[in-house]
Structure formats: C-alpha cells, structure tokens
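FAQ: What does the model actually see?

It sees only this:
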Amino acid sequence: MTQGEVVDLGREAVLVMLMIASPMLITGLVTGVVISLFQTLTHIQEMTLTFVPKIVAVFVALMLFLPFMLQKLTDLMHLVMNRAITGG
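And it is asked to produce this:
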C-alpha cells in the first residue's frame, strides 16, 4: 500500500465517522437549543431539565438513523477488506 492509498483510506474513514456521528450530534444540539430557549422564556433555571429530553431525542435519532449508519460502516468495511485482499 502506498502512502497515497493510506491517506485516501484515512480520509474515507474520517468522512464516514462524521456522517455517522452527525445525526446524533445535530439532534442533541437542536434539542439543547430548544430547551434552553424554553428555559429562558419561562425563567425556569433547572439544570437537570435538559438531560432527559436530550437523551430521548438522541435515542430516537439513533433508532431512525441506525440503518443508514450500518450501511455506511458496511461499505467502509468492504472497502478496507477489498484493499487488504488485493494488497492495496
């Protein structure tokens, strides 16, 4: 395997990682902003109020995006195994 092929494989792995992590991260971010806005508008200053909705929202996002995530990981694994078998 040449240095360029290793860099391409690493780049592909980072892109797959970003595609897999982004649905949960964006869901957590949006949920946190909505809850913070709600707390600001109602003057509720309870710090633990944000945890349960975030956990539920991220869990729902995980269940919705799990097939997409599994497909991306499977595609990456096929790419890695094909390169390993062919020697580069």
